[in-house]
Amino acid sequence: MPPPPPTPSPLTTLLFPSPPITTPSTETHHLFTLPPPPTQNLGFLAPTAPTLALTIARRDFHIAQSPGLLRSDLPGGTTGAVVWRVGREIAEWVGWEGCFLFRGVGGGHRGGREVGEGEGRGLGMGRESTVLELGCGVSGLLALVGAGRVRKWVATDQEYVFRLLRGNVEENLPRPVDKGGRKKGRRGKKEKEKEGKAAVGGVGLEESNIQLLALDWESSIVSELPALIGLEAGRGVDLVLACDCIYNDALIAPFVTTCADVCRLNRREGEGIQTVCLVAQQLRSDEVFETWLEAFVELFWVWRVPDALLTEGLREGSGFVVHIGVLREEGG
User: Could you tell me the pLDDT band of residue 40, with boundaries at 50, 70 and 90?
Assistant: First the structure.
């Protein structure tokens, strides 16, 4: 007997009118028979470079990464030590003014914000919304680009990324503008140390709406998240975002379980608000991808985000794919 259809919502009725994915093998076959892009490799942006200069969403970023850490044998992996191509593309998309995450749902409310018919189709996330990013890596690019559009952006990963991650976020936070309309310069290391904490142009991480949080998919207690990130019990986050977190079989079960556990923290379905889970990845192994999708559709209603809602670097033929999921009702 086929599963019952998902409960209608702005997401399912406006953004994705087609049925959700029910046959992972069909989705896998479609994606992996597309012509591959001319150059893709493993997906690192520049794995041997200690620093990167990037322009994303019309902003310049200077990102430190660690090729040495990438080559090390720390338990649990070190793939977050460098910047990945799909991360750059998702950051560009998050900063795009047409990104459906931040467009209105065509009437009603989302995250405390009223949205109207003229705003276009979207999830209507805004200044009252909270994003939880899984596997953010050392760059902090998604948080730096997206935090200005939401109430709070919580970037999570394992402990080993945090020294570089914190430095990158603080180095690239938007600088205030002086009375003459000029951006204030970055302060030197000695000046920062003199104040007792790192800061950039008078804006430090503690004063921003970006929170860095260690989260291990296998050992962390997800039920403690609301208290750690300052949410009321039952509220949960509005979006779980994961970028290139699936690259071997061993990660699939803890990753999918963590996604589902975070989504279950949100008990606002009666208000028409569900946590949305967005997963972006590079197409590498058809076996790993299909195993992930099989596990994901067991717990989520899943759609592939269509090209019309993506920037060019994420569309079919790019070697990347973006899926979005809404947690199934218990027993659904």
Answer: low
The 10s digit of each residue's pLDDT in 265-300 is 987 656 667 899 999 999 999 999 999 999 999 999
Question: How would you classify residue 32: left for phi > 0, otherwise alpha for psi between -120 and 50, otherwise beta?
Answer: alpha
Contacts of 168 (CB under 8 A, 6+ apart): 63, 64, 138, 139, 140, 144
Between CA 94 and CA 100 the distance in angstroms is 9
Helix, coil or strand: residue 77 = coil
Cβ pair 158, 214 in contact under 8 A? yes
Nearest to 278 by CA among 245, 328, 327, 324: 324
Which letter does DSSP use for residue 219 in this model?
T
Q: Which of 234, 235, 231, 259 is nearest to 245 (CA)?
A: 259
- The pLDDT tens digits for 96-110 are 999 999 976 543 334
Alpha-carbon distances of 46 from 49, 70, 81, 83, 278, rounded to whole Å: 6, 12, 11, 7, 25
Q: Structure tokens of 147?
A: 């935090």
Tell me the whole-structure pTM to 2 decimals: 0.85
